[in-house]
Amino acid sequence: MELLPIEEINVNQAKINEINHLVKSIYRLIIYSRHHLDDDLLDTYLTNVQELQELLSIKNAQMEAQNEEEAEEYLKNLKVSLDFVIEEIISHQNFEKEVQLFQLLRLVSPETNVIHPNRYRQSLVQVGAHICPDKNEVPGLVSELFYWMQFISNPIIRAIYFHHELIRIHPFLDGNGRVTRVAKNWMLMYDLYPPIFINDAPQKKEYISTLSKSFRELDQNPKKWNEHTASFFDQEIDRLLVNAKFLYETVNQIGLEREKSNPKA
């Protein structure tokens, strides 16, 4: 397997600009509005992110667990991992090191870590029609992925690229999706973007289908940007745009309610 060259990435810059405008608008409201307090910057962001995390946790648990007991365990582990991520962000730690993958695996999929503790998978795996790289290739591919990530300046593109390529590598026997999505949202949240999450079962189906088509095309043309890879990036950006709008509307409403209760402020 060869990683998709980062210079091939071609996304809708207008949507990226819209997301950045929304995020900046949120912080302008908090910093300059007379109807927000100084502490609202952190408190409001964390409160809304926690609400989004709850949605992220519930949706993933409902769509990936096989039974109620498994969903409950899945949800518990995901919440622990998200709490860990927020603590790391508060401590000014971004997701940028290979060792952090194993930290997340231990939290979000402890049963997988027991199978191969602190190391990558030792067997061949297949995701749909995509045969993942041989176990001996995995360490080198993951290291290469972390190397190229540092040259992607835009955190949105960096997070989505990491998500796409790590799932394609599939470094663990199980828990790859959970680890990858938490890592992606760690990168986004570190730069004050809301997390990306799957809203419903149809979106989940679309997500899997688009990834599968992207992987199939890249298996045939490994260094060429294609319509399916472009679709995956676009879908992820669209989900982030929806969440950014939600976050802005929530923060704005707080100010409007304060203004109504204290119009002379």
Give a short overview.
The chain is mostly helical and 265 residues long. 68% of the residues lie in helices and 2% in strands.
Question: What do you see in this structure?
Answer:
By secondary structure, this protein is mostly helical. It has one domain: Fic-like fold. The protein contains ten helices and two strands. The chain has a two-stranded antiparallel ribbon with strand order 1-2.
Architecture blueprint of SSEs:
Blueprint: H1 13-32, H2 40-64, H3 68-90, H4 99-108, H5 110-115, E1 126-127, E2 130-131, H6 138-149, H7 155-169, H8 176-190, H9 201-220, H10 227-261
Antiparallel strand pairs: 1-2
Helix pairs in contact: 1-10, 2-3, 2-10, 3-8, 4-8, 6-7, 7-8, 7-10, 9-10
Keywords summarizing the entry:
mainly alpha; Fic-like fold; 68% helix; 10 helices; 265 residues
